Amino acid sequence: MYSNGNAVSGPLDSLIDLLMPAKCDEFDKDYVFSFLLSSRLFVRPHELLGRLLSSVPDHEPLDRLVGLLGMWTKTFPYDFRDEKIMCHVKHIVARCANTELGDRVSDLLCALLNRLTDLEHHEEELRACQSNTDDTDMKWTSASQLAQLLCRIERKLAKHVGPEEFLQCNRNVLNKQDGTSNSTQNGTPGNQDPKKTCNLETYLDWSARLRLLAANEILQCDGITERSRIVEMWSGVAQYCLLVGNYNSATAILESLDATPVARLTGTWSKLSSTSQQLDCMQKHAEGCGDLWHKQTESSAEGGTFGNKIKHPKQKSSTHISTKVKSSDWVVIPVFADIVRLALIAREDCLTKFPNGHLNVAAFDRLAAVVGAFTRHMSEVSAPLPAVGEFESLWRHMQRCNLLNESDLLLASFDCEPPTASEKLNYNIV
Fold it and tell me: Of 131, 403, 114, which is closest to residue 256 (Cα–Cα)?
């Protein structure tokens, strides 16, 4: 079924046929990305490549399949960590040997190897940070320097998230963001192989730990003066993150400052030059830019283009937020949990077939708009990546330091400033 020349539904076999057009220069790149992303809910990637390979008779050239493979390895390189799909790739290499396609296949495999090697180095860094037992305390030099490091780490984590990971993640992956237990009973949806990467979960865990870290740093201070200084520092970090477009770090920090254990410290807040009104303004600014991202991905889905760069949101005028920031410092990192929520909603629509058994390609396109906008944008962000040493130091500190959970943070808060009469009633404190 078509609408305005675009496929909106169809049986799986017919949709697979659309992947390889009659001529190599007629590939619909939007359709290829959309279908390769969501079709894994119904057919495993190695099965799909095997069907495509067997559909081309031995005596015919594989130019169309090689063209598709080039797009596949570029947009979904992590699929090729699977031995089963690489068996089909070896057959393609053998059939293209001693033909004019040989060099093309060699080039795309070199590019694929570079992408997978980059991922392996990233995973090795994470493992090294987690296994290191050095619990040296971090010394925060200044709010702006910490914010700049957060921006670089955010970009490093975000750029490694593969688009297929939004399809493969557990339905309860966001529970930790909401402070609830993370169950793994539901598994991955649809007809999928076990997940081979964990970049999405790592990034969500980073965001959750950043939120806890800010509260822990504040509540472990001795005395109101030192505590108010640390609150001021984290408020400054959030402000700088907002100014350059790092809404993920800014939101995590602002949620921490707005949470009950920190927000109730009236004595501490009374010593600050920052005010609760300033934090409210910053929070609304972050939420407004999240709405803007949502609208832009919706526009991409309606227009059928998923590779457009996300425009920099306009800074809202405010007496509380300075707008003195160089345009070259912009990174524009959306709140990652919001992207995951949008993707999970769209994923449910993809799983639902029409009464005649057709797959919902229009739903595939909506999911591709959300996922494609995020992954392609983050791969193009020009902010520098962190040096291995500074990344390792902060990451190790966040992974290894003893962070109190939400309920323990409240108890620590009462140690800082005794509960009021109404709080004793609300929390059943004797």
Answer: 403
